[in-house]
Amino acid sequence: MSAAGLVRGALLGGSRLCAVSTPAAVSSSLVPIQQRRTVVHKSCLNLNPETTPPPWDYKKHGYNDVHILWDWTKKRFNQNTKLITIEGNIGAGKSTFAKELADELGMHYMPEFKMEDILIDRYGNDMRNFYKYFPERFRFPDMKMFYADPAHPMTTCMQDRIYFCRYEQYANALAHMLNTGQGVVLERTPHSDFVFVNAMRKKNFIGLPFMRYYYLRRKITLDRLSLYPHLIIYLDTPVDKCLENIKKRGNDYETNSGVIDREYLQVIEDSYKDFMQEAERKSYTLVYDWQKAGDTDSVVEDIEQLDLDFYERYLSRGGMGGGEHEKLQAWHDIDLEGPYTWNFWRVYFTEKYQLCAKVDSLPKHEVEELYCSPEDFDQFIAAMKVHVLKGPHSYGYNHKLGDSMWNYGWFLARQGQQMPDRWYDYYYKEAYYDDYFSFRDASDRTGEKTYNPDYLHH
What we know:
The chain is of the alpha/beta class and 458 residues long. It is 38% helix and 6% strand.
């Protein structure tokens, strides 16, 4: 190998050797090779603190049209400012691998979304403890509840909410990357969520009207995300091995439910094959035979060989190659428009208002499970006031539950929401409550008159 060759996996003085480029002037018996890598092991990152601003605390300060005037986004970018997503069947070993990969690359790890992420609020209230007060339409299942009764009508509502939260989590990953310059390793994305919908439909857990609604919603929302992952890694694990891994995990609600069987996992695997064909157009992809868990270091070496900044523009948009080569096109379109454009995208993914506005307002009248009657809605709002929030005040302004009185002085701290917080992880954790409106609010601010302990749907 020439002096310009890549020394892979070696350690020198406790440090990993990094790829180098040999100048043409260097004498060598071989032709020098110019090498360029866009993702490197964390020990090879050369960050200059004098020219690189510290990470922007977007969760504390947000990032809006005022910040855009002086805090520039691309100054924080480095080789590893990339979005990598990990995909695979249930029981494939994604979580362990994703954590290790994030650590190797010095990236931020974001675990797969779970319903528990939105069922416990800032005050420690677990909504599941209050389901006895809520109409059935508002008793969203967690995974244990789903496995116990997968054909329940609320399975449809659960999956609808999971998709929206995956959609929002993907935006969170982009917001983190643009505000801090740190790359992100994310488990699953809204792009691949349909593999579970297909499996649920196959086993008749959800109906055909929801399938139609879901795919329409998916098309609209994914168009809004625009920026696809730089790299998608798929862990190809045989169904039998997945079943074996699930059994080893020892979660009785998974193994004893009858939901996760060969048929269910096979539909997920087949759907993933369709997904990877779709993903290949937009992102770089790596597929690994994961029947036996591979070595993360070897995967890092494979990633280091990819040029995740490379883009042949003439191959896109129906040009040469029939428009099939669209990898990373959106990322490069932003670069062509100039560094100021990155600031606007940073606002877009940090505030999430334009991203999420109206995507939850598609007509649902044909999907019976998603319908919510006005009476159910009134009862839910009253139950929240009486049992959960202990009064008329919403999240962030509830002095009884420990919120600071100073919060009352804030307004329009973030576009599209009334809470004082500059950031929220998930709309359906708390922010949704400010958008819920009951006609009885005007005459019953505390909910005590509206709340009916003998409500028929209770």
